[in-house]
Write a structure and sequence with these properties.
Chain lengths: 322, 274
């Protein structure tokens, strides 16, 4: 199959002024719509219809089998030499002379390199910031705010509370978090709290207390800045269980059975002006003892499913900043 | 009289045909697209290809259905945590035909993945991944991975409990990959926790990034299918992909499994004579 060449046959439509007349008619209509719809628009319509009809007739001449006027050959361009035949491409002097032997940077090499090089630079200038924008923000400005959980008096000593709060009240429901909190009373003259995160140490589902949750004693506490704390007394006598893959934990959050790789995470806390303030979360391999006497094996916060101790910890040498 | 009528009719018919052909010829003369389309659609394939060979095109159709229904769902879906769930409810319960288009997209997603596996199984069992089609197998495996990523990112969008917790588990699963896993998880979430940005992030990946990749990979995949020709089944007497020559005894039999196929479908497709 050879490509059709220009000049193989006559192409209709030939040059014609009708399209211009048609365009003038349309322009006339548009102008008329603004200036004088009653007079100028009809004139424009007439011009457009007449020129359009003539244009269509002209353009379909060949198709309707009418003779088509020969089109003059194109003018302009390189003047055809009348005296000598064209030089075949493999003969004569090339537009760009062959480089001298031994020349290291002939011009075509330079132009090739410049084109590719500039292309790469432009591509890089566009791509690097875009990809950076995609990746970097996920790793910057992370971290955990301090969350006011309300007056200490709400936390009856020795009683577990399912405590729900907003990590970022302005972000709404998506920042709703749950912790299991028990006031352990005093330890060396300071208040002691156990604050266990409900994020399963397997793959992050919300663990539930194994025992009654006293929904009828639910308490809502409204705090400034849209913070709303919900406290529900619970008796997690059987520890905690995960609905997703059946991971089980004891009441201190130690893994008892199932796929989790470590104990439940916990939160730091502080007491400020008689309020319990939630601090940063941290990971825990296991806990010895109970309540205020518990010995907690504490690690930097690590994603669910990642080992913090044992030989497997070498698989997770680095943690993103949070 | 009768002859005249017939003549008149056939003249009109000729005129009609000319009217249909004119724009087609117009396009062909200026672009070669019609010839290209015919080359693509009316390729020669081995005589004993059968239904098994349609699984690839079935997968392609499933993907195109996803692309079409997805684009239209995007006209009504609102990818932010406050509105996502409501907008899905609105599509399903209020908007005319919304339930249907959403259903097509939701069930079609599974159909697409299942067909991909069926197609892959047929390629594997026919030995069609062998020389010279290894590269197409590799592209296929990439398509499989990217296709499943498309499913994963789409699953979050209804923003209901199932969607949310399945995504929590899915992201954390990625997070347990050794060494870079924790960083991958943060990249997917757009931070340390699923938050306001995660949904828009997944939406962008689901509707722009990954489909673009899939389109590009399908283009490469089909380019290779056309260039190399389709292999004949293992039970074929025709040597895989080679010019079938009736005069020559089909010595090597069982093509797909044992025979290297032709290096190019071009010759088989008629070469210069096309
Ligand atoms: C988006 C997903 C995919 C689409 C749209 C697609 C489409 C196609 C089509 C239309 C064909 C030609 C007809 C046929 O043999 O069925 C084909 C062939 C092929 N596909 Fe796929 N495919 C996809 C995924 C895959 C996967 C997951 C694999 C394997 C890992 C794969 C490997 C191959 C191979 C090796 C061939 C050549 C088969 C032969 O020549 O007989 N493809 N594909
Ligand atoms: S997420 Fe809790 S057991 Fe898997």
């Amino acid at each position: 199959m050879t490509e059709p060449q220009h000049g193989d046959r006559r192409h209709s439509p030939g040059p014609s002024l009708y399209p211009i007349g048609f365009a003038a008619g349309v322009a006339c209509i548009l102008v008329g719509l603004i200036i004088n719809p009653m007079v100028i628009v009809p004139i424009g319509v007439v011009i457009a219809v007449v020129c359009g009809f003539l244009w269509a007739r002209d353009a379909t001449k060949e198709f309707r089998g009418e003779p088509v006027a020969a089109i003059e050959p194109e003018r302009g361009g390189p003047r055809e030499s009348t005296d000598a035949p064209a030089i075949p491409p493999d003969r004569g002097e090339a537009a760009m002379p062959e480089p001298d032997p031994g020349e290291r940077f002939p011009r075509n090499r330079f132009l090739e390199g410049a084109t590719l090089g500039f292309g790469a630079v432009i591509g890089g200038l566009v791509t690097v910031p875009a990809v950076g924008f995609m990746i970097v923000p996920a790793f910057k400005g992370q971290g955990y705010p301090k969350v006011d959980l309300g007056p200490l008096d709400n936390f009856t000593p020795g009683q577990w509370f399912v405590t729900k709060f907003f990590m970022h009240p302005e972000a709404g429901e998506v920042s709703h978090r749950t912790a299991y909190i028990r006031n352990n009373g005093q330890l060396n003259g300071k208040p002691s709290f156990t604050i266990i995160s409900n994020r399963c140490a397997h793959l992050g589902c919300p663990v539930q207390p194994n025992g009654p949750v006293q929904d009828n004693q639910k308490k809502d506490i409204n705090l400034p800045k849209g913070q709303r704390i919900t406290m529900i007394p619970a008796i997690p006598a059987g520890g905690y269980g995960c609905p997703c893959h059946g991971g089980q934990y004891d009441v201190e959050g130690n893994r008892v059975s199932g796929p989790p790789v470590r104990a439940l995470d916990r939160y730091d806390f502080a007491i400020v002006d008689g309020h319990l303030i939630l601090g940063t979360p941290y990971s825990v391999s296991h806990v010895k003892g109970e309540g205020k006497d518990a010995l907690i094996y504490k690690y930097k916060l690590t994603g669910p499913g990642e080992h913090v101790d044992g030989w497997e910890q070498i698989l997770y040498p680095l943690q993103p900043p949070h | 009289m009768a002859t005249a009528a017939r003549n008149k009719k056939s003249a009109r018919r000729r005129q009609l045909e000319a009217a249909i052909n004119y724009p087609i010829d117009w396009l062909e003369e200026r672009s070669g697209l019609i010839g290209g389309l015919r080359y693509f659609l009316f390729r020669k394939v081995p005589g004993d290809t059968g239904w098994w060979h349609t699984l690839g095109s079935a997968t392609l159709t499933a993907f195109l259905v996803q692309a079409l229904t997805g684009v239209i769902l995007a006209m009504y879906y609102k990818p932010d945590p406050q509105n996502a769930y409501q907008s899905i409810q609105h599509i399903t319960n209020d908007l005319t035909l919304g339930w249907l288009v959403r259903g097509m997209h939701k069930w079609g997603a599974s159909v697409f993945i299942i067909l991909m596996f069926f197609h892959m199984a047929r390629v594997f069992l026919f030995g069609a991944y062998k020389y010279p089609r290894e590269l197409n197998w590799i592209i296929g495996v990439t398509l499989l991975a990217v296709g499943m990523l498309e499913g994963f990112t789409g699953y979050l969008l209804p923003w209901d409990q199932t969607a949310y917790w399945a995504t929590v588990v899915g992201i954390n699963l990625n997070g347990t990959a050794p060494f870079l896993g924790p960083f991958l998880a943060d990249f997917l979430r757009g931070g340390g926790e699923i938050g306001t940005e995660t949904l828009a992030r997944f939406y962008s990946m689901h509707m722009l990034l990954i489909p673009g990749l899939i389109f590009a990979l399908i283009g490469l995949h089909l380019y290779l299918v056309i260039r190399l020709g389709v292999s004949s089944p293992p039970w074929s007497r025709e040597a895989a992909g080679s010019d079938y020559d009736a005069d020559e005894p089909a010595t090597n039999g069982r093509s797909g499994l044992t025979q290297p196929a032709a290096r190019s479908g071009w010759r088989r497709n008629g070469g210069d004579d096309v």
